[in-house]
Amino acid sequence: MTNQVAAQIDAAAAGSNQMLTFTLGDETYGVDILRVQEIRGWQPVTRIPQAPSHVLGVLNLRGSIVPIVDLRMRFNLQHAEYTPLTVIIVLSVQSPIGRRDFGVVVDGVSDVIDVAASDVKPAPEFGAHVSTEFIEGLAAVSGRMVMLLDIDQLIGADVTGVALNPAA
Amino acid sequence: MNTWNISVKAKLFATLAMTGIVMILVGAIGLGGTKSSNTDLDGIFSNRFMPTGWVGTIETHERAVLEKAEEVVIRQDAAAVKAALDLLQERQVEVKELLKKLEATDLTDKEREIVEQFRGHGADVLGLVQEAMLAAQSGNFSAAESALIEKARPAYEKLNNAGDTLLRTQIEVAQQMRTEADASFKKNSTFIIAAIVVGIGLSGLLGWLIIRSIVSTLNTAVSIADRIASGELGNDVRVDSNDELGRLLEALKRMDGKLVEIVGGVRGSADAVGAAARQLSHGNDDLSQRTQEQAAALEETASSMEQMTATVKQNADNARQANQLAVGAREQAEKGGAVVQRAIAAVGEINNSSRKIADIIGVIDEIAFQTNLLALNAAVEAARAGEQGRGFAVVATEVRNLAQRSASAAKEIKGLINDSVDKVKVGSELVDESGKTLSEIMESVKKVTDIVAEIAAASEEQSAGIEQVNNAVSQMDNVTQQNAALVEEASAASKSMEQQSGTLVTQIGYFRRSDGTGITGSGSHAPAEVVRAAAPVARPRPAAVRKAGLGAANKPKAVASSGSPAPLARASGDDSQWSDF
Amino acid sequence: MAIDLAQFHDAFFEESFEALDSMEAALLQLNPGAPEPELIGTIFRVAHSIKGGSATFGFSEVASFTHTCETLLDELRANRMQVTRHVTDLLLKSVDVMRDMLRAQQRKEAIDAQKVADLQFDLELAIAQKNQPAPAAPAPAPVVVAAAAPAEAAKPGFAHRWRISFRPYPQLFVHGNDPLRMIRELSELGELSVKLDGNALPSLEQLEPESCYLAWDLTLDTDAAREVVNGVFDWAEGDCELKIEEEAAPVAAQPAVAAPVAAAAPTPEAKPSNVVNIADAKPTAAEPAHQPAAAAAVEVAPKAGATDGGSIRVSTEKIDELMNTVGELVITQSMLTQLGSKFTGHVAEQLRSGLATLERNVRELQESVMRVRMLPISFVFSRFPRMVRDLSGRLGKHVELKMTGDQTELDKTVMEKIGDPLVHLVRNSVDHGIEMPDVRAAAGKPQTGTVFLNAYHKGGSITVEVGDDGGGLNKDRILKKARERNLIGPNETLTDDQIYELIFMAGFSTAEQTTDISGRGVGMDVVRRNIKELGGTIEVKSTLGKGSRFIITLPLTLAIVDGQSVAVGTETYIVPLITIIESLQLKQGMVNRVAGQGEVFWFRDGYVPVVRLHEVFGLEPRTTQLHEGLIMVVEGEGRKVGLFVDDLLGQQQVVIKSLETNFRRVDGVSGATILGDGAVALILDVPGLIRVATQRLAA
Predict the structure, then answer these.
(1) Fewer CB within 10 Å: C terminus or N terminus of chain C?
(2) How many domains is chain B partitioned into structurally?
(3) What pTM was estimated for this model as a whole?
């Protein structure tokens, strides 16, 4: 299964990418749709002691325990209330010891868009207040600017603990 | 009388004591005789009769022992020897016991001697029997038999003879005692009869002496009292004894003296009263004049009070009307309030319905949201399926569009509903406000009603107050009228008093000295009834005055001035009415 | 687009490791001087397939090294070279090297090239110095094949049951006959049971390699006629005594018995003295040897009988997925049950009975899936023959390893974690337990010592015993040592159990001499900690001069734990029941404040500190007043604390799910579980929690 996913990711990487876009405040972000496991509504989470503040807790995702990250907090945006319309996008990252799932809390899911590889521009430097290390690139889709997120960077060691650290 | 200068009480006591002493003497002698005869009877019983019994019993015991022993010897029954010895032991003890009792009784010397013999024989019999039985015990029955027949039997006969002698002696002693008792009785009765006769004689003599001394003194006292009753004072009373009757005469003498003094005093006083009554009569005429003037002023006051009462009553009526109007206004306001409440409830229901609609819209929105998520998930799956998922992705997009449209429709409806909810809210706020205003009005009306009611109540109270003042004024009028009448009467009374003081002087003149001289008296003679009637004279008048009313204020004066006997007759009949005043 | 071979790497590594395990087992079984060709064949095949695989995936170093091994094995197979102890050792080392290389490849680490090169040189040297060709036919052990041969037609109700007495003359081999072939042919006819008669075997010195000393009694259930059976032995006519008789009615098909398999080996007396006798361990050794493909497979059939063949290879990932799904099913089912209890009426009755059935089925399903994860403990035991052999050789002791109950099943996760403690214990037994041969002889014991490994089920847990017939624990020595290290007071008297308890204390070793095998003073405390982490216990029984026995009791699975749910604020936590001593409510005034130690209260025979769970986890509790909540006295690593919680909720068995799958380790939390309402509850790691709380206090 793991291998399958990897293969598909490779396959998709060649041509145009489908992106799932979502909003955080006024911004629109995009993630590779093949990294998306599931999209689900907000549900109360179980808190995890000693976790970073943006790690809200864990959730039961079809039998597996999945950490939930509040992207607003991760990006140091103003905190928003969680309502039943708040959306959790379950994403998966690859780590040397296998696939890891985690959920991100976003304001809303916008669309599934096709982004041609040629439309993606590298991210310019925004200055000090916005870190671009999580931004893979920018894409203009029907007049809107979509920031494409590098979730492997984004959800690094702080969530998976070992994601950037080859397994022992 | 002089020789008996002791109190009547003491004399009576002395007589009674004499009689008592005689009776005690007689009783004591009788009691002594009875006691001595009882002592004799006891002696006969315990010292003569009982011992005869005991002697018999001792003999019986001895004989029983002897016979038992003889039975043993005759039967030669060794086994019975023991029984015989036992019986002997037992009876020996009893015999000793009885002998002791016998010796304890009051015995003459002769008797004592016989008792000693009796005891010796008894002991002999028992000793011999014992001896014989001991022999029998050792088997020597013949020896025992001979001992019994030859020695014990004769000993027993001697015992028997001694017993008989003792009995005879006892009876003789008893007979002697009986004769002595008889002689003593005869001597006692003679003495008692003599004592009774002497006692009766003494008592009769004393009684006659006492009665004579009392009656003479009482007769003297009666004659003095008779003389005082007939107005003869200053009698010469001679007292020559110190007892109760003496004291009675002394008191009569003091009464006589005192009466002389009093009659003199009364004569003086009656003259003084006559002078005062004349002065009083003059003062009363003045008073009467002023009272008439006061009555007129009061009449004027009463009429102005009546006018005031009418005004206040009108005031109260107006206040009552105002109160009714205020109550009506309040009811109207309340009705308005209820209507507003219903309006509020209706608006609340509208609000609830709107909220429910909003909830439903929320659910629709939620469904649209979920559908959107589902469609997104489907799009993700489709993307993962690559080329094969293209069609599916299109469908998913369509579904998403639909979901978004339904979401936006829901949002619109939600907006509208929210708008209407807001408007309803405003409406309900307005209604709330008008309701509040209405209840404020109600509150104010209520306050007005309360105030008006208070005014009405105050007017009533005022009216009642004026009524009371009115009453007080008319009462005052009445009192003034009565005062006027009283003054008239007082004037009349003072006149009659003048008259009567003269009568009094006349009456005092009744008393004279026993030597025929008067007691500083004047010779006026008025009948006693007039003096007695004078007191009620003043009273009956006011009743008539009261009946006559204000207008007839002068009338009583005329009546009163008309003088004595006529009003007197009316007075007693009106007495009860007077007390009402 | 080129096929990405990487996706097959995992499968390749897995198969290779398993193959290496079986190769190792086969090597250990190999008798120098009398090598079974079949074993050599097995070993050769393993090396060959690893070589092929490595080449395909581009692991050239592995391929190159394996090629050298293969060459050596080929020589052995062709009898051009004799199997000696040296060769076996070399090959065993090769197995280790190959394993290391593959592991390095898997983890993308560098290979220890020097070590590989050295060994490769040794191997080449061995090939170059190849001995005289081995005698043509070694003492055969063909029965092994016969026993393990597939018996597809194993069905009851055959037409005939033939009793065959096959007694070859010694010259059988000279005429080119192979009894093994004949027996295999027979086994193809029907169901065959084989009984070996090895009475004629002479001692090793007198053994003529070219002579056949064995005889067989065979029972064949088959539909084949006498002629067909006779035909099998056509070629051997004149070289054997053959009797074929028919038994009246074949009662029931007797399963082929593998029992006598290894008896074909020379008698124990004939062996070199320090060779490990694995006679009692034959099922372990035999199975991987002959069924390399199925060695690591999930054993669906509990025992590999002659009717085996129903097992499939399934990756644990899939089983875990299945477990997850079943877990979800359990949750859904419990939600349905809750819902069902709200209905009324007679339809509801049916619904409820249906739900009850569903519940039972789901539970059975869960148990079945759980059983799928169960593996025989032989997977752990299989490493010990080699280890004991190596150790005893190095120490110069004579040790015999006896293993029983190696088919006892336990959860894979438990198995993975019990290996190290067992290794430690076995090593201790060999190193400290078993005395040197001369000492043993002086003590009147056989020179060869015995180490026992015994596994069996007991209630809901598995018990593993590690014992030896060595010197036993020396109480005086332990006491002396303990006093030296001030672990106990000089005048303290202890019971036997308390004395044995001392060896589990950190830094305690009585070995007179530190060896590189054991005696460094670390060990037993780690063993105990590992076992405790698994939720198990260890106890010691020992008799001086007679030996000692370590008894380990473990839960069958780590996937499920009996827990007590507690509430703190809005959160629910699970506390493993095994750690709970007592739950109680403190009254006001029962708590004392001790400087530097926080709150303590008196419990049974000492003061116990209070750990406020809400403070440790930073929660908003329902109450902060100790007398309003509850205290749960828990024990971890020998320390007791009173855990302050809001309320106790209920006891239940929960399925443990790792937080580390998608997240990372969290101090004080050993995992998570999913509650009946689908919410996640964290399972407390009591020792970890105590550590965290202590650090907080110290900070």
Answers:
(1) C
(2) 2
(3) 0.44
